[in-house]
Amino acid sequence: MQQTIDTREIINVYYGTTSGNSSRLAFQFADEATQHKFIPKVFNLKEFNPDVFIQTRLNIFFVSTYGVGGPTSDAIDFHNWLQSKDRKQNELQGVHFTVFALGNTKHEHFCGMGLKTDARLEELGATRIFQLGKGNSCDETTDNDYSVWVESGLFAALEALSPLVTVPANQVQSSIYKIKEFNNIDVVVGETLSFQAQKYKDSHSLKIIEIKELRKAPSPGNSTLYLSLESQNIPYKAAQNIGIYPENSEEYIQEICTMLNLDPQYIFQIETKGNHPFPTPISVHNYLKKYCDFLGPITKKQLYTLSQLVDDQKAKEELKFVSSHKGREEYDTNYLQTRQCFFHLVKKYNIRNISLQQLIELCPLISPRYFTIASSPLKNPNKIEIIASELLINKERLGLCSQFLRNVKAGQEIKCFLQDSAFLLPQNPQAPILLLGIGAGLAPMRAFIQEKDEFIEQNKLDQSPFKGPMTLFFGCRTMNDYLFKEELEEYEKNGTLNQLKVAFSREGQQIRITNYLDVEFLNQFLESGGVIYVCGSTQMGRDVQIAIENMFKQARKVMPYLAYRKVNELEEQKIFVKELWG
Ligand SMILES: Cc1cc2nc3c(=O)[nH]c(=O)nc-3n(C[C@H](O)[C@H](O)[C@H](O)COP(=O)(O)O)c2cc1C
């Protein structure tokens, strides 16, 4: 007798991400949808195909916001397609959707991209299955916000639309991986890789020319590295973003192999009807090194699986509880905020019985870390320079990328790719330029200064995108953190920088760069058609925003409630350009 199975419809799960939050939730949702007997298909928005979208009834979007309430770079084509005037009224009739928007309340336009997507889908005639959800990464509550959203009835709404049907078992596509030992005699057939794995595969391998510490008295967590990479004739732009794929260290790989009794030399292939999560055949060692993110924030799916595997009854209950909706506050305070990860919990609870297949299903791929290029291709056509601050987690362990960069040596190659940042050249080359940076936020400023300096050196200032006066206000804690001191002072001496001011927040007068932004100065600067570039912490971005608002209120007598809008207008006109983190 033919075997049958109860199932529901296909759901397309789309995500647009930069740092991995949206993709993590998209895959988590896919896992939960499978338990509810749906057939999820996960796509990065770069792979968005309008025909597939319109033909599939159920669609869910996980979209994060970047820039001024805009899309992540992988979602730009989708965003342009959706918002295009070419779209016809009711073009999306029959399509059902729901959106989970990711953002951060420290940024303006909170969840802007999700809100725009949600509103436009409805405008084009698509039916909203469930109200928009919002995840706020400000206090790292995104994952909890997601579970609250799901628990408030998402699956009930989906199930009402798509009742169970009984079909022959062989009609249901399975995306579960099967691990198979690779023998040298096996013929390797071309695999279709997941979007993220393909992006990794297509990225460049750039050789490190030099790596050194920039601070005078570094300590763990208070270190800033300088890296130069051979650009291998890959065209790059000043202040562009570079995504670097970090790798797990040998110590961690050895330890996890010992804990889980995995043979690092074992070479395996993956059998799946879906996309392959990474290229195979591969050794366990290389999988753990390049792809397996076992040090990232612990997910509820990981906690649930660990609860099933741990022997200790108390631990079992605790892990199960925090993986549930009821335990969301404990999950947030005791696991997310304390930066717990899969590796440390496996170690803490002495869990040994996790198979390679489970590991692959539980741990996401290592995501790239983004930096802003600190050099100009005109001055340095053969090298890309980067400034990287070190991240210390819980005052005890370095973040994955920080430990990776600590261990790499000159001559070694690293995987990376380039993409545009918010720091585009000014539209008016005559515009006065004000560069505001703190710490490693000096990177894009240095790239622009180098660019201008090169035009001056070649006696071609008339062709430069920076013909107007250029001012740099740089903030650091103490003289020990004053990065590129001699170089910056030289740029001031030779006239590339018309003004250089350095604010030390923990030394001397203990001031911040915002102390230089008084009402009169900002008013005159903006009246003269100036452009302001800011790079550093979100707090600093907010302080600069407040300084500009005050200028509007006091110098231009703008009503307080309109001052905020005025600053937004400056952002939209690319007169106030920010790239912030943290
Ligand atoms: C450079 C930058 C710009 C951002 N701009 C916004 C924004 O305008 N509005 C917002 O709500 N969140 C903004 N965010 C926050 C992200 O959307 C949020 O952290 C999200 O969880 C990231 O998801 P991802 O890991 O999938 O990229 C920004 C984050 C960065 C790093």
TrEMBL record:
Residues 201-426 form the FAD-binding FR-type domain. This is Uncharacterized protein. GO terms for molecular function: flavin adenine dinucleotide binding; FMN binding; NADPH-hemoprotein reductase activity. GO terms for cellular component: cytosol. Residues 11-154 form the Flavodoxin-like domain. PANTHER family: NADPH--CYTOCHROME P450 REDUCTASE, NITRIC OXIDE SYNTHASE-RELATED. PROSITE patterns: FAD_FR, FLAVODOXIN_LIKE. Keywords: Flavoprotein.
